[in-house]
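Reminder to self: keep the SMILES exactly as supplied, no canonicalising. Ligand is zinc ion.
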Amino acid sequence: MRRRVLLAAVPALFAPAILRANEAPQAKRLSLRHVNTGARFNGIWHNGTAPDPVAMVELSGILADSARVLPLPFAPATLEILWRVASQTRLGPELTIHSGYRTPEINRAVNGAGDSQHLRAAALDVEVPTGRVPAVAEAALRLAAGGVGVYARRQFIHLDSGPVRHWRDDGVERAGPFRGTLRLDLGVQPGRLRAEDLTEAGRRLGLDRPVPLGNRVVLPFRL
Ligand SMILES: [Zn+2]
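Structure tokens returned for the bound complex:
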């Protein structure tokens, strides 16, 4: 009798661990539309472990600024940034994309920066209602995963997976100064951080004096 009880108890004890092991990784969905072409995507782009190759082909075409150009494979790292920012701020349900991959001709026509990440299919401009710009910008800046351009007057935010940096359009009415911290992973051991590295990181990002924290750096910033 005692033996039977023990055997019966075993599956119950191990059940939570088995369930966790078999649990599927969380699939990531995106719903978006490009204003230039009207092309839409609505579905799973990442299975929780890796980007879905078929969805990436589809998204690469949809995120090109013109239907008449051969698209470049779009950077999954940029879609990850978009997905995280949209999830954290509940932006959507359908995201409106103002610009994605640009050929050099398109980039010149829209007065894009000469070395724009749009040319590498690694940047996108997503529409954000004016009142929500500060919250969405804050979420993007906290990720510290790439470039963040805040265009409040034109109601969009630029996101890319290039070097960590940020900028904003001029002449924007500020609702009030925003203060927060930005964590920048320098990928170095704490003892190997040099004062000049920190100063340089702060200078390049146009931020206040950085404060070292472990192998990361916390940078106070104002938006
Ligand atoms: Zn942009």
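Points to follow up:
The two ends are 69 Å apart (CA to CA).
Residues 27-172 form a domain with the Muramoyl-pentapeptide Carboxypeptidase; domain 2 fold (CATH 3.30.1380.10).
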